[in-house]
Amino acid sequence: MHVETCAIKTGSSFSPASLSTLDSEETLVLLFGAPDLIDTPHRIREVVDACPRSHVMGCSTAGEIHGCEIFDDSIAVAAVRFDHTPIRTAHAAVHSPNDSYAAGRAIAAQLRQPSLRGVLVLSDGLNVNGSELVKGLNDTLGEAVVVTGGLAGDGTHFKRTWVLKDRTPQSGYVTAVGFYGDHIRLGHGSKGGWDKFGPERQVTKSIGNVLYELDGRAALGLYKEYLGDRASGLPATGLLFPLAIRTSQAEGKVLVRTILAVDEATQSMTFAGDIPEGVFAQLMRANFDRLIQGA
Fold it and tell me: In the predicted model, is pLDDT for residue 82 greater than 70?
């Protein structure tokens, strides 16, 4: 396996030589960039045109990481050429959260083969229910196939995200790459850095990933009480205050749900994954030192 990485900052030029040397049908190019690149796709084309035979995936971010640094309004690229591992890409439309499960099944159907070992998924970050997307993938592929990935970001704007489809940034899609054969071993992990605070409350009304009531009270109004002055910045300030959920008060496993949108008319909140009725929920706040340590 051979790897090259680079960061292309605003105003700097791009030299394609290092990436083009890895171009092949067994090469995966991962590209992560600023949300507004969807309006200036020529900057992305400069990169992908350097690798015409490679498989290209990518998405918008809330900050691009290269090495030990993080940048805004840049492009971070990693090109990986495999020696003995065939790869294949797939995509599916996801125009609303209701499309999420079907999109997961469609991606899985495109990639499924006996030799499939793992799938890396990148999805539109605002029009998807992440829980249902993963369920659709796992229901089709089974437990033997490793599935990992993430949702596209757009900083703190919560307006529009993109993923690369057909080598161009587009909203409303899920893309994925499958890895095949016995020469690759895949794993994944996650680590948080959040502190729970306030009382634990029961979800008394929800539909899918939309939360309406906690302990019989309107979810958004209750959420705002705890955010205080920061409530005026929702949904962006909600990134600092996700929700911890667990199926029962005796259950030790906690799932973290990130806010995607708020609806003042219905006093509801939309999250990146399911919030089932009957589960117990508690607010969380960022502990920046532990978030950095977890990363």
Answer: yes
Tell me the average pLDDT of the chain.
Answer: 91
Question: Which tokens go with 137?
Answer: 């993938």
Residues 198, 159 share a domain? no
In a domain, 270, yes or no: yes
Pick from 154, 180, 206: which residue ends a domain?
A: 180
What is the pLDDT at residue 249?
A: 66
Residue 185 lies in a domain: no
Same structural domain, 198 and 157: no
Per residue, the 3-state secondary structure of 84-104, as one string, reads: CCCEEEEEEECCCHHHHHHHH
How many angstroms separate the CA atoms of 145 and 134, rounded?
Answer: 12
- The DSSP string of 180-193 is ESTT----------
DSSP bridge partners of 71? 64
Cβ(103)–Cβ(174) below 8 Å:
yes
Consecutive H or E run containing 142: none
Nearest-10 Cα torsion for 19, 25, 28, 33 = 60
Model pLDDT for residues 48-76, shown as the tens digit of each residue: 999 999 999 999 998 888 887 888 888 99
CB neighbours (10 Å) of residue 116? 20
Angle at the Cα of 10 from the Cα atoms of 4 and 14, rounded to 5 degrees: 40
Task: Single out the residue in 180, 205, 222 at which a domain terminates.
Answer: 180
